[in-house]
Amino acid sequence: MTSAIRKFIFHDLQTIEGYIDPPDALVFLSLLQSQKDRSLGGAVAEIGVFYGRSYFLLRKISGSDEKILAIDLFNIGQATEGVAAQYRRFLENGRRLGMAVDEELIIKGDSTMLEPAQLTAKIGKIRFFSIDGGHMLQHVASDSRLAMETLADHGVIAFDDTFNPAWPEVTVGVADFLRQSGGAFSAFCMTKYKTYVCRREFHGLYSDLIANSADLAAFDHVETEFLGSKVARLHNPFSRRMVYELMVRSGMSAFSERVYR
Q1: Which of 14, 78, 86 is nearest to 49 (CA)?
Q2: What is the pLDDT of residues 30-82, one digit of tens each?
Q3: How are beta strands 106-108 and 68-72 bridged, if at all?
Q4: Distance between CA atoms of residues 38 and 40, nearest Å
Q5: 82: left (phi over 0), alpha (psi -120 to 50) or beta
Q6: Nearby residues of 113 by Cβ (< 8 Å), 6 or more positions away
Q7: In whole angstroms, what is the distance from residue 153 CA to residue 95 CA?
Q8: 3-state secondary structure (DSSP) of residue 154
Q9: Is the model's pLDDT at 1 over the cut of 60?
Q10: Are 216 and 190 in contact (CB under 8 A)?
Q11: Which of 5, 41, 130, 170 has the lowest tally of Cβ within 10 angstroms?
């Protein structure tokens, strides 16, 4: 199963416009698969879908039986019969990949206007919540509250674009969330683009999962500290990233998986 998902990550996923890179795709795989192996149940949710790159990754890992809630404005591009081009392409990507979108679990709208009960009414408690919506402080603050109040006890929140200098308020928002939780939440893993947090009582479990994941063995695990918690920073050398990008651009994406073994 894992080999099939890795093939999907390094081949099929690259055909969808989007921003999730192999290191984070492999973290998603490691965390979601480990939760399933340990019967840590719950649904999956995502704020910020774009054209579905991370959505279809979540679907591939989770399987067709699990509920995945997707939230996005879906307002990019010209609308035809009231449907924006972005949403049409999202649905088309699903059909092309053989993973039809459950439109009952799509919320078109502003995530900051949602109440936790609207999410849990659709999918129940959430074990993995990806936040990649608005990048201003008020958006991060609102989305993180929404995630916190719908998260299963063992749930994980993945914040995108933390420490990206193009979006400095995301960093502030994530730090505010962790500090204002009064120690209830802590970060356990960081990549170049994302920060992963959980409730403090599960910090040891998820830290061990990251440390021992075979799918993450290709990365240097550098221990750092963030707001009082030990964090594994997964270092992806520039040389590897360059080789990978060259292979993808040269039409050799089918073989690019070997770079991350």
Answers
A1: 86
A2: 999 999 999 999 999 999 999 999 999 999 999 988 999 999 999 999 888 88
A3: parallel
A4: 5
A5: left
A6: none
A7: 34
A8: strand
A9: no
A10: no
A11: 41
Residues with Cβ within 8 Å of 183's Cβ and at least 6 positions away in sequence, in order, are 200, 228
Please give the structure tokens belonging to residue 122: 């659709």
Length of the chain: 261
Q: Return d(Cα 17, Cα 14) in angstroms, integer.
A: 7
Q: What is the pTM of this model?
A: 0.95
Per-position DSSP letters for 197-237, written without gaps between them: EEEGGGHHHHHHHHHH-GGGTTSEEEEEEETTEEEEEEE--
First-residue to last-residue Cα distance in the chain = 16
Joined together, the tokens standing for residue 157 give: 């929140």
Residue 86: CB atoms within 10 A of its CB come to 20
User: Which helix H or strand E contains 83, and what residues bound it?
Assistant: strand 83-84
